[in-house]
Amino acid sequence: MSCLRLQDWPEPIVRVQSLSDSGLPVVPDRYIKPPSQRPSLDSASPTESSIPLIDLGGLFGDDANLRASIINRISEACTDWGFFQVVNHGVSPVLMDQMLQVWRQFFHLPIELKQVHANSPRTYEGYGSRLGVEKGAILDWSDYFFLHYLPSSLKDYNKWPALPNSCREVIEEYGKELVKLCTILMKVLSINLGLGEDYLQNMFGGDDIGSCLRVNFYPKCPQPDLTLGLSSHSDPGGMTLLLPDDRVAGLQVRKGDNWVTVKPAKHAFIVNIGDQIQVLSNAIYKSVEHRVIVNSAEERVSLAFFYNPKSDLPIEPAKELVTPDRPALYPPMTFNEYRLYIRTKGPCGKSQMESQKSPR
After folding, report:
1. Which end of the chain has less neighbouring CB within 10 Å, N or C?
2. Residue 357 to residue 318: CA distance in whole angstroms
3. What is the reported pTM?
4. Looking at the DSSP assignment, which residues form a beta bridge with residue 326?
């Protein structure tokens, strides 16, 4: 694909928040999903079956049995769900609250102050309202802000919001804390795969990894049964830490043929496996489809922190996990090459992962 396709959006950008604020009684056609993709809201209340909730407190203590038990629970969650929630993770609850607060304030600034940060498909960095550059695509009911945190060469404070006043400092501190938590979780995943504890981190580039933040804003929607805040997809990167809005549920995770609505725990992070760890683990761990529903009564803000491999390193199944019975499922590919697909097509379930599989 030529980069010319990615210079600008194919159609004028409409901010979903402005549609919602206008009080329109119906969802415009551009946002109406085909019947097979529409959410079933009668089953959208959080179910008894939900993703595992894991207390990480014991990981940092001296009790070897407790530590082993936590590591084992994470292993089961990665195998059974691809998703889990963590509490007592070491990130300050005050910082988590501040982060949600500054972004709620940002999205309620006057439109002209947000438009200064309007993004393009070239980097996605900034204030956006669509993924994918296909003309006429059915869009999601959300706006977002995307920014790079690592590597330092891509971090540009001038592209981060200057308002509200403390925004840049809070983002910087938050990013630092989440990188720390991600490195701990990467060790746990490596141990659980039977690899050296630094294996995954080294495959990602050691200290030279990528990380970025996508802040999602889901405005109130007049017909939430016709659309989605974010279409079904698996995350293209390595691992995601989501800080949800714990006041209102919206994330749904695919479990078999069902969609399970996640009930967020207070001051928890929702952790999920991305496509790059599915590749490195030779699909022992799977990145799982998820999507976001919207509602007519409440807006929502959530923050997805993506922890990714260095963008130009070839990622392929770990040699230790390739056997005659389980050959390598995926050819080597860099994260840069891989994510170009989602930046062109937008979220498309697991079709991207399936298309990468090595021919048998």
Report:
1. C
2. 15
3. 0.94
4. none
